[in-house]
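Q: My labmate handed me this sequence with no annotations at all. I'd like to see what the chain might look like in three dimensions before we decide whether it's worth expressing. Could you predict it?
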Amino acid sequence: MTPRLRILAVLSGIACTVATVLAAVTPVLVPTFYEGPGAFGSQWRTTVVVNNLSDSQLSGNGVMFRTVCSIPEGCSTPQVEPGQFGSIESPQAPNGILLYPTAEQAEKVAFSAHFASFPRQAFTGGSELPIVREKDFRPELLTLPYVTFGTGGTSFVRSRLRIYTLDGQSSVSVRVELRPWFFPTTPPTFTKIVRLTPATGGTPNAPLFPAFAQVDLQLEFSGAVLQAGAWNISLVPLPIASGDVPRIWAFVTVTDNATQDVTVHRPQ
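A: Here is what I predict for the chain of 268 residues:
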């Protein structure tokens, strides 16, 4: 091979590598997408909007968007074009949806997400719903401090812990540990092993719905309601069969049973 051809081959290889990196996808989790009834007669609605500020088309991977078009009600489409606004339309997914922007798009696609109780919060948008990037999932301890349960055997709130993993093609388990808020480093007062349901939909390498588990904290840790009013919650991902530790993310919603106001606790 002549020096010129050798240089061209090297440059071609670099170009292919760059193209592969740019084409790589990075998962983004919408932790819930639901519209319908809830506890105590509440009605809930989730709104997730996308501004595609990138130079390429954002594909939904099974998600449908409502976009601005020539008809007043907008158009239903499986992608959001460059420079376009879109809102997630379907599917209903109380346990979360995964989107797969490319690595280049990940820095240029902006999301806004809220969930609200209607009609009371119709004009405020309700509470912010975290949009979770791949970098937020970690194969290590997660801590959610000072989560309200209730006290003295009475709780005027309902507290829900939701756990997710991007490594959920096989069985994943997480150990949930509770400590009083004022003793954050003592041995846990309560523990529970929680197994996540495997990811589904889409393809094995790009599932539509994440591996997930939900824990009703007042129900599963009823003894905690009798003690401290707030608890520190730790989550420890347990090794899977291969010995690898799965990457996890979690958050807690604390909902006032009377007003349906929601406080979100997420890892900091």
